[in-house]
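In the previous chapter we treated chains in isolation. Here, by contrast, the input contains two separate entities that must be folded as one system, with a combined length of 619 residues.
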Amino acid sequence: MNKMEETLIPKIGVITDVRIDTPDIKTFRVVTPDGKKAFDHRPGQCAMLSIPGVGEAMFSITSSPTNTEYMEFSIKKCGCVTEWLHQAEVGQQITIRGPYGNPFPVDDVFAGKNLLFIAGGVGLAPLRSVINYCRHYRDRYGDIDIVYGSRSKDDLLDYKEIIEEWSNDAGVNVHLTIDNPQEGWDGHVGFVPNFVKELGFDTNKTAVLCGPPIMIKFTLEGLISLGFDKTQVYTTLELRMKCGVGKCGRCNVGSKYVCKDGPVFRCDELEELPDEY
Amino acid sequence: MRKVSLDSINKVFAKISESNKLYLPVDGSDGVAVYTEWSEGKEWSNALNTVRSPKDFFFPQMENLMEFKTSGKNIELVDIRDEKEDFVIFGVRACDVRSFDILDRVFLSDPVDSFYASRREHGIIVSVACSKPSETCFCKTFGIDAANPDGDVTAWKTEDSVYFVANTEKGEAFMKKIEDLTEECDDSAVTAQKERIAKIMEKLPLADLSTDAFGGGKTDTFFNAPEWDELSQTCLGCGTCTFVCPTCQCYDIKDFNTGNGVIRYRCWDSCMYSEFTKMAHGNNRLSQKERFRQRFMHKLVYYPENNEGIFGCVGCGRCLAKCPISMNIVKVMKKIGGNKSE
């Protein structure tokens, strides 16, 4: 019998590497059992990962599409599925399906623009995909500024990559901050929204924001006070999802489904949605 | 148009049952009409409608999606989808027939839900006109004609006969099967019934209920309406409305450990439940008011916005009959939409 393709039926994936990033975030490398990338994706898209018997949940794909060998997911331990994943070892099989959602408009809107990435905590995970995509195609974009903050130095995700790779790229400026003073940290101390205002960016940029809802709210206000228009600012949302394709009803906000109409939204588009995200 | 005398309708059922499973409303021992597989001795119910909607036929309350066998770190996935056989749902009312169209727009839109699609493909719908619409009926509000329902075959039941017209290829095939049991006839009895039904519809208490205030693009108009507080105040969050609703289609996907494997299944869920949107890091609809509002905004504004103005309600009246606190979409439409016909 020739069976119809069914999006709810996943592929098998294998965890081939587990990197401990912070006390509660690990980055998992996933391929298919025959060692290939499970599927192609665009920066900002997501995938459903599951452990049979535990549950399925949506995660942003943190690796860049330019990585054709594997996918990476930076996952914070905070619920059933994530707790289980954090105990998983290399060689563990999981299930994977996707890609889901709309990507960041890297090839049209972002092309030729100066880019400002602003992330808080594990909010860097979805942005890393875009940042590395733009670094890969460096000549297609203008200057790149990256503002990233976390609770402490130990909570900064991808710290090694930021220091050893991003900071050394021509035309890429990295601005790090942590919430409270800490021994061995001589960088900036303070919350991301204030840091953005202190840095006082020129408005000739397209901004991409991701972090806790409260950080997004205040950072957006900060950008607007600097003269940015909401049409220049993109963000990516996270709501509970089950199907990933706009049918199960869970991530419905207004007439949009975050899984298929998002997770990437321009901030003026968000304004048209009821305040339920 | 063809007809069969009511005395012989069981012969029609028997004939159909020879080749297909046939489901129709049958009164249970508790007097409640339930879609039941026909067999000799089962009688077609005279009830206006079933308490549960026929959405189960295409979107079952629970269905297994796939199985996993795990050993050590390895997972084996088993695709358990099987080939479905044609089946007939007989006696579907106009409101419920429309509900299939509303569900189709969700499950058959890209990417197609193959579980739903295969059931839909194999289902043959024989609708029947409502000769006695009740006071909780308001299908007319949504442009549905109770006297002339859609479906593969439309039937009209009078005091002595059942009349049939095929509307689709599937319907033609159905009529072919019962050709020997039915006879060609004119449409005078059906025309008379249609006129009678139209007159009843006009006099129903909800005949004036209007959708004019609602539709796509009205989120700003209604989302922050102060009336939601009062309307939702007594809502228990029991979810009865969503379970009896023929168009509610929200679902959950869960895993069940069988002891030697895992079954991943889908089951109905409800936006009225507090856990529906609850995530590890928070819940974007914390109050019952927000959840209550979501259900009605979805049917009256969000769904039509995404579906060419078609509302996510068919006016079947099940929620009016079953809500334990007597709250329902009619009260919401009147209060929020400013319809003062009450």
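Residues 219-337 of chain B form one domain. The first strand of chain B starts at residue 2 and ends at 5. Compare these points with the single-chain example from earlier in the chapter.
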